């Protein structure tokens, strides 16, 4: 049976709050039956005003050391626990309080806390080089077999540069160059995956490669790099950043300007700013630009909260995030910052 890894326990995190409505949604159901395909974020969102805070709910409860596995068909029950909300789990006819007990099932059967497949698909096709100038020192395609201009799976390629044996390599094409509009600083260069190759042998500075997979034709001057790890952080749990973040949506990969729920965006903040995988940021839609009726001066109206983004891959100066909630269309240039928090450490 498919299972969902969910960390909903007794809501003792709300013990610090004066009343239920500080943590619970007004329309929180008394009972919810878990459905196939649910994620932790989805389930928490039915009960909590801020679904990304579910790890804090169980982390502050000394009786709960690990997340619980809840299966499709199980029912989560909301009840009164000495004046504060508690969540129980109904299996069959009995209601039991969630405990530290963990039901062990094969990891492949557990549903992820967020839509990880969307992220994996994106990471397969995109990566960032922090210093674009370093590309000049990397291996690059110089020719295809039989003087072909383009190559595909099963073909042989020739690249110039040093490539170690045993490693797995990807072939990439230069994408968007990200620049800080305010300072002119280069934040990174996005690379688009073209295919994968296997090193056959090296002769002087020419390496012979076999194309093992190709999503597009490989061309001369495409870059050859060791494949980036596509494993997602096991601790990819939603939480507020530990430091103050004030940044912008730099781009929506794919060449579009607008983004909605479950779309990936590029942020102009990264590791050096304190971001890490799992950090949740509020997205503030930029206010409209208007002209002062008296002076003609261009004015930017105050923005409004429009969604939540969860960071999943971080580079030195920028990062990728998944839009988890969008109450309106989000756009390049919209602000990202620490979310308001009832339980968390940052954003108070």
Overview of this protein structure:
- This protein folds into three domains: 3-113, no CATH class; 127-226; 246-337, FlgT, C-terminal domain (Thrombin, subunit H).
- The strands form seven sheets. It has a six-stranded antiparallel β-barrel with strand order 9-11-14-13-12-16. A six-stranded antiparallel β-barrel has the order 17-19-24-23-20-26.
- It has helices spanning 40-47, 54-59, 116-125, and strands at 3-6, 31-33, 68-70, 75-81, 84-91, 94-97, 110-111, 126-129, 139-144, 150-151, 156-160, 169-179, 186-203, 206-214, 218-219, 223-226, 246-251, 258-259, 264-267, 280-285, 289-291, 298-300, 304-314, 319-326, 330-331, 335-337.
- With 348 residues, it is mainly beta.
- Residues 1-21, 58-68, 92-96, 98-111 and 342-348 have low confidence and may be disordered.
- It has three helices and 26 strands.
Ends: how far apart?
Answer: 40 Å
Described by strand count, sense and barrel closure, the largest sheet is: 6 strands, antiparallel, barrel
The fraction of residues in strands falls at 35-45%
Helix content: under 10%
For this structure, the quaternary state is single chain
How would you write the strand order of the largest sheet?
Answer: 9-11-14-13-12-16
Rg, alpha carbons = 24 Å
Unreliable runs: 1-21, 58-68, 92-96, 98-111, 342-348
Query: How many helix segments?
Result: 3
Topology pattern, helix = H, strand = E: EEHHEEEEEHEEEEEEEEEEEEEEEEEEE
List the domain count as a whole number.
3
Number of strands: 26
The shape is globular
- The pLDDT mean sits at 79
Specify the structural class: mainly beta
Pfam families: LysM (PF01476)
Protein name: LysM domain-containing protein
Organism: Billgrantia gudaonensis
